[in-house]
Prior knowledge:
The chain is mainly alpha-helical. Helices cover 73% and strands 0% of the residues. It has a domain at 213-261. Residues 1-301 are annotated as: Disordered.
Amino acid sequence: MIQDLVIQDSHPRLSDSRLSDSRLGDPRLSDPRLNDPRLNDPRLNDPRLSDPRLSDPRLGDLRLNDPRLKDPRLNDPRLNDPRLTDPRLSHPRLTDPRLSDPRLSDPRLSDPRLSDPRLTDPRLSDPRLSDPRLTDPRLNDPRLSDPRLSDPRLSDPRLTDPRHSDPRLSDPRLSDPRLSDPRLSDPRLSDPRVSDPRLSDPRLTDPRLSHPRLTDPRLSDPRLSDPRLSDPRLNDPRLNDPRLNDPRLSDPRLNDPRLTDPRLSDPRLSDPRLTDPRLSDPRLTDPRLSDPRLTDPRQKM
């Protein structure tokens, strides 16, 4: 028994648990690529089973997830046929190379009459339209077709107007009435401020000076126009002195306070028994009413 233990301890494969275990000693089992449960389990290795989007047919089908692909043609086998869905394949006129060629399908290219630019372009086929004098709206004028109107001597208003053709009238000195009339060319006559002496006088044109005092010498005299100077009463210093104009100062009777104050001049007003409303009672003046024996009803009893 002891010998077996010694043998087991001395043997490396028996002493090492990794070597004595049959699962760990097998190189196929010790390979990490084989120990990974994701690699050993066939259900996990299959992306269709591990990816929930692929395991669920409703999620894995792009035709069901993509709203752009939710089309009945994806589910209907009859509509999946490109010969039925593609209009270029289902239409016989489109599948014919002779008809699908743009050079052949365009009637302007297949018809030699239409391919001629002289026939297709209305400006070239119609001689009336090819004339720039007729097509240009700026030139669409009856003066181009009428030789009488195309004559510059007739179309130019400066030449047709007799006033312009007559040298006597074309002279600005003659056509301008201000220059032909000597009266109008004279600034003294044309300018109303110069011709009218009344308007040239600033005393008459200025509204601030338009006053009869300017024209009437009697009113222009400040001694007459100023009421302070024209009134002799105002020129008298005795009358202008406020001390003399005040009747209270000039009259000695009014300067006496005994005369000016009504309370001092009237003895009735100076008596407080008469001026005080609280004392203005007939009992104060009537001796019969002031006697308490007559006024008190308790005394009468």
